[in-house]
Specification:
Helices cover 48% and strands 11% of the residues. The chain has helices at residues 3-17, 38-52, 70-86, 99-111, 123-131, 139-143, 154-159, 182-188, 198-212, 224-233, 248-264, 306-312, 329-332, 350-362, 364-370, 380-388, 392-405, 420-435, 441-460, and strands at residues 60-67, 90-97, 118-121, 161-162, 165-166, 169-170, 173-174, 176-181, 298-302, 319-322, 336-337, 340-343. By secondary structure, it is α+β, with helices and mostly antiparallel strands.
Length: 461
């Protein structure tokens, strides 16, 4: 495979399947990140012209916030340091958090009209933040050349466009990816193939437990994303505008799978996670733990997380990557505009923020620092430049997205509606009750559908 084909094939898959489209639905939502008042909206609009006119070489200070792991934190800080070296009049404060903490912090800062100047955004939140006037439109900066989109694929631009306003710059293309320890699977005598069915995955998990004692972690504590993935195989988008759209009959068997796994021993006991930071790569059961009882042979991640997972691996582990299992892998799987960079409504100097974002996406030096960790770069020239410097592990990520995920994907779900965060909190509460045997899978499915629908409806009204 040539390097050019590697990136061109991914972009072709993105456009052909329409998998990056869907942000411009125009639905009326309110952000889960914090309350937005009419006064704040009016103030942001009135100040837009004045704020955008800055950037004359005067001293500039801004805050750049993102979520991530240690690899991302180091790469991003290196990029910030390089930008400040090249632009001595600019001072950038980097702020990073874990995923859950990040959105809680933004909610608090948003309520106080004090959002960071540049924020990392997620596909699930872009529409909500835009509709509550929390993101600064970028169209004027594209028009005057501050942001150069000439080497960007239109599908990527569309992914960050809501109601005709370009508000979010895609910083990488990713796909769901199950990381696994090949040392363990080899010891158990099993072969991991791409696009496994869920039944095949369960049988492999049982075999690995019987042969080696290592167990399985199916995203305990953050399984809502995995369940949404499985619901796609049922032909269902789990979170609708005002209700949970799956049925009890569709959902309960997946809860039952966990109950059976705990009872039969091949799934890690929930108590193991009581003292862990759930959702962090550093304490994921694939690489964290001192005995097979507390360790998992696999982890459910994203393709761009491969390097970070490898960096946390224990001695002797051989981390590889495949697709998430599903009843129907092709219906479940998708490619995603992994993350975005946006300018917040509270940015003190939007034009300088736009210059910084343009540099992050379009500059070779910036991407020497970022190393494609957030996903495959959207600038075609930069993607080819980064590909030339790939390590074997980096090459595995690109090849996985190109050769495995892209040909076996379906359209991505629409962005999550307002209320989805609250509905996911309901899911995690109910999921834990099921895991600890406090309610049956059927009762859990019924409770989640009822209470999750109430959370969605409350935000839709």
């Amino acid at each position: 495979m040539t390097k050019k084909r590697l990136f061109a094939g991914i972009l072709s898959a993105c456009m052909g399947a329409g998998i990056l489209a869907g942000c411009g639905s125009g639905s009326s939502t309110t952000t889960t990140a914090g309350a937005s008042s009419a006064a704040a909206s009016s103030s942001a609009s009135a100040a837009a012209t004045t704020k955008a006119s800055g950037g004359t070489g005067d001293t500039v200070s801004m805050v750049f916030a993102w979520w991530g792991n240690q690899v991302r934190n180091e790469n991003t800080q290196n990029a910030i340091n390089l930008y400040m070296k090249e632009n001595p009049n600019v001072t950038i404060e980097g702020q990073f958090s874990q995923w859950g903490d990040y959105w809680q912090k933004l909610a608090t800062l948003s309520a106080g009209n004090n959002l960071p100047d540049v924020i990392q955004q997620d596909y699930a939140y872009v529409e909500q933040y835009t509709n509550s006037d929390q993101l600064y439109p970028l169209d004027e900066f594209v028009a005057d050349g501050t942001i150069d989109t000439s080497k960007w694929n239109q599908a990527m631009i569309d992914a960050g466009t809501v109601d005709g306003k370009f508000v979010a710059v895609c910083n990488g293309i990713n796909a769901p990816a199950m990381m696994y320890d090949k040392t363990i699977t080899d010891a158990a005598g099993v072969t991991i193939k791409d696009n496994m069915t869920l039944d095949e995955f369960i049988e492999i998990s049982k075999t690995i437990y019987e042969k080696t004692g290592y167990k399985t972690n199916l995203s305990y504590g953050i399984a809502d994303g995995l369940f949404s993935y499985w619901m796609r195989a049922e032909g269902v988008v789990m979170f609708g505008k005002d209700k949970v759209q799956c049925t009890k009959e569709q959902l309960a068997p997946y809860f039952q799978m966990y109950v059976d796994g705990f009872k039969e021993g091949w799934m890690i006991d929930p108590a193991v996670f009581a003292d862990r930071s759930i959702g962090t790569v550093e304490q994921d059961a694939l690489t964290y733990g001192d005995s097979p009882d507390t360790r998992s042979w696999c982890a459910f991640q994203w393709s761009n997380m491969y390097i970070a997972v490898c960096n946390t691996a224990q001695e002797g582990q051989n981390i590889q990557m495949t697709t998430w299992p599903s009843k129907d892998p092709k219906k479940s799987n998708f490619l995603k505009a992994g993350q975005f960079f946006s300018i917040s409504r509270d940015a003190k100097n939007p034009r300088e923020a736009a210059k910084f974002i343009n540099w992050l996406i379009n500059d070779e030096g910036a991407n020497d620092c970022l190393k494609g960790e957030r996903g495959i770069p959207m600038n075609s020239d930069i993607a080819e430049y980064v590909v030339k410097q790939l390590t074997d592990k980096d090459q595995l990520i690109y090849s996985y997205v190109e050769d495995v995920a892209a040909p076996n994907s379906s359209n991505i779900n629409p962005p999550d509606p307002a209320g989805a965060s609250e509905a996911k909190s309901v899911f995690n509460k109910v999921f834990e009750m099921v895991a600890y045997g406090q309610i049956t899978p059927e009762a859990g499915a019924e409770q989640f559908i009822e209470e999750g629908s109430q959370a969605l409806a409350a935000k839709a009204s």
